[in-house]
Amino acid sequence: xxxxxxxxxxxxxxxxxxxxxxxxxxxxxxxxxxxxxxxxxxxxxxxxxxxxxxxxxxxxxxxxxxxxxxxxxxxxxxxxxxxxxxxxxxxxxxxxxxxxxxxxxxxxxxxxxxxxxxxxxxxxxxxxxxxxxxxxxxxxxxxxxxxxxxxxxxxxxxxxxxxxxxxxxxxxxxxxxxxxxxxxxxxxxxxxxxxxxxxxxxxxxxxxxxxxxxxxxxxxxxxxxxxxxxxxxxxxxxxxxxxxxxxxxxxxxxxxxxxxxxxxxxxxxxxxxxxxxxxxxxxxxxxxxxxxxxxxxxxxxxxxxxxxxxxxxxxxxxxxxxxxxxxxxxxxxxxxxxxxxxxxxxxxxxxxxxxxxxxxxxxxxxxxxxxxxxxxxxxxxxxxxxxxxxxxxxxxxxxxxxxxxxxxxxxxxxxxxxxxxxxxxxxxxxxxxxxxxxxxxxxxxxxxxxxxxxxxxxxxxxxxxxxxxxxxxxxxxxxxxxxxxxxxxxxxxxxxxxxxxxxxxxxxxxxxxxxxxxxxxxxxxxxxxxxxxxxxxxxxxxxxxxxxxxxxxxxxxxxxxxxxxxxxxxxxxxxxxxxxxxxxxxxxxxxxxxxxxxxxxxxxxxxxxxxxxxxxxxxxxxxxxxxxxxxxxxxxxxxxxxxxxxxxxxxxxxxxxxxxxxxxxxxxxxxxxxxxxxxxxxxxxxxxxxxxxxxxxxxxxxxxxxxxxxxxxxxxxxxxxxxxxxxxxxxxxxxxxxxxxxxxxxxxxxxxxxxxxxxxxxxxxxxxxxxxxxxxxxxxxxxxxxxxxxxxxxxxxxxxxxxxxxxxxxxxx
Length: 813
Prior knowledge:
The chain is an alpha/beta fold. The protein has 7 domains: 2-107, PriA, 3(prime) DNA-binding domain (GIY-YIG endonuclease), CATH 3.40.1440; 117-169, no CATH class; 183-260, no CATH class; 278-461, P-loop containing nucleotide triphosphate hydrolases (Rossmann fold); 468-512 and 574-696, P-loop containing nucleotide triphosphate hydrolases (Rossmann fold), CATH 3.40.50.300; 515-572, no CATH class; 718-810, Alpha-Beta Plaits (2-Layer Sandwich), CATH 3.30.70.600.
């Protein structure tokens, strides 16, 4: 008997076994997809993991439904990498499988109903049942969604159940392949008329049908270019309609044919690389040297030092040897600008992969990488692009490696793309280049310890000086009444100078919306989200209050919900409020805003970045999206509206992150000709981090933070594993957290922090408790994880605790 073990896209700790025939056993290969039944009626897409002849113990193996691929869509190295992610980040292989594959590959089972042909007792049916019965007379089968539309209500399952009991219908599970290739419609002349004598005859026949004759004549003009002719192009060029072309097809004059085409193609030529400057050349050669002895190298280059040009030269070298290159970015906004730059050099090699692309576009990139096509030799993408089926990887570039966006928090696998990319490169025997002006403390520590190679680039491109940073004391400005709204007189003066000189300004405020809190002046109550433990943010544009955690929203109220007072006051400020204030202060300036609210569409980033580059926007207000490697030539001033909110965040990384964010935002100023200016508004200008930002002292910040980390036992000296418990019943989750805390303390002692209540203790009606386990360097990570899993199994064996959601996050940073 033949069997296969499969990975199912659900969080199962073990692989499941299914029965296959002899013929299927010879055809199937590891990495192919099969449709299998799991549970009573659900059909899933599973991935073949192994083929063997051992029957499963404890259950009867079912047969597979069908084979979905002719060749494997996942390769051996990928599976090895998935196993590492599953093992290291303590999640199931099924969760990695679900995260890795584009959703189009994970087929959906959709319930359909069909009519029992022998049924004839129509008088037994109620009005709603009869409607479905009648619809099935005209249509052979109906999906649940169609039944909902026919009856005009969502609760249709009782009616369907009643129809099944009356033997009117039966249920059928139908599998759909979601990916549909893009087919382009082309036109050609049929063979019958494809000779000079026949053409003259054709034009004679069409002499009375003027529009059809014009279409034929236009076709001959277009065919001179010797390229296939699109139906759309022919219609447009001949100024006719689709009906005219259709009538020519019906007459047998034209034939229609289709060509499958990828949805996204990049034009460009792989030539004309920029000459590297002397410091860039030195850094490039140093990277090449360190790659000989170290697999991973850190390139620490100040903002605007031209790190991208070094990447381009390394990419060119690898593409010439037919190797694949993966270029990882933290933010989709960055891909917009980089696509233009990389397309110029490597248009025919470039493919882009991130979540703003449609499902079908992502499937095409996956297939092109799988087949090792030239057009997918260079992949530019966000963290998920690491899961693509590379077979010949030569280099991974992780740009802005310090960014928290590389960490996946929910759902599982909770991996860090930088660390997982280093393991992937190791499996491919490829190199990794980590680039940043403000490296993560762990990465810089690894470079200092000699684990990674280290290359520094301290001069900006074109020898432009680093921006001049000015700390503006807004406590003093408030006292002297020199504030206009949230702007100090000094910042307004600098903005006026920049606009008068026809230069652009970027203003940074890391909060979106108008105001994070609306408070009643009479009773002090502020509107709260009913599902989360946070106050609602006021969005002026839509006049609504919105929760940024669960999406709950309601219209802005004009009086207090508690006491009825009309005296409502806003506390704090977001990007929307800055934009409104700027419109009043600078009525002639064009103002743009870049945050999550304005970049929701597929081309949202492109539109705003394009306008700013074309200098259609004078002042751009934005959140942290602005800090990540964007390159604007005409920006002379960057303003940070309030540095204190970042510094006072309750997190052991708050100071490191604040430093990185402020230095990165400052780096957007003065990138091409003259030295830029940065104004940082703060209530505490003597804070050590602000002083370090103003003098660009990364090493000083690093040493200070490292001493604190050693003292308080945090990374890079200790690893962290965070356990989060969630449940809708406050008492249950609290009781469960205390039980778990005691069990973990009995094993790990003082290295367990918690259980504690996070600053936001309830999200989407789920109460949250967290525990953190610190792991010293000498302690075995494998033994620690096994102990945690043992405690987890005991926890879930307790009946009261079983419904509590239990999440493990390894390396929680």
